[in-house]
Amino acid sequence: MTSPRSGTSLRTYAFIDRMQPQCAAHIAATSPGDVPIAGMAELYIEMAPGNDVFRAADIALKAAGVRPALQIIEREFGLLEIHSEQQAEVLASGQAVLDEFGLLETDRIAPTIASTQFITNVHPYQAQLLNKWRKGSMLMPGQSLFIMEVAPAAYISVAANEAEKAASITVIELRAVGRFGRMFLSGTESEVQSARDAAVAALEEIKGQQA
């Protein structure tokens, strides 16, 4: 929903209460900003027009004790990630951004699962192809693989974090920027199924506007 006061559209507002080890490590390895660690709380804010994210970052960082891992502007949208050891600091910072732009958390776009794929007994050649561009752990032949595609993109981080909470899986790749967010998780068939169910349930709990 677009704020009549600021003209800003809130695409994603996604709070993560406790970052899981693999998800935190993936952000730390791929982020140009401050490195987060497991156990921290974090918040993703995606806006349009994209340049509004610069103002959002200024407000967020001055409002509370948070640090940024991401401040990305792409063709249409701007994405900000902030994190802290204290959940209250992250929530206060996010609320300051909403207040400044005349927005509510419920003005965000609700996540939509665009596609899912569940592959058992991954072939060695397919594993090798995926491993060439993955930024997380290696995909081993014979494992099960779950792939999820979500819009808006940043919600994939919530899905992955909840999946890691729920099951003993390996995070192969996370992509939270662009038109769609994607995650690739692997493990035993039963563990990957549990991770899939947790990811879907987490996204279904996020309420917002229809795109």
UniProtKB/TrEMBL annotation:
Keyword Endoplasmic reticulum in the entry? The reply is no
Which protein are we looking at? Answer: BMC domain-containing protein
InterPro entries, per the entry? BMC_CP, BMC_dom, CcmK-like_sf
Major site of localization recorded for this protein = other
Domain of life per record: Bacteria
Instruction: Tell me which UniProt keywords the record has, alphabetically.
Output: Bacterial microcompartment
A Pfam family of this chain: BMC
The record, for SMART domains, names: BMC
The chain positions of domain BMC circularly permuted read: 9-111, 112-211
Gene3D superfamilies linked:
3.30.70.1710
Q: Report the locations given in the UniProt record.
A: Bacterial microcompartment
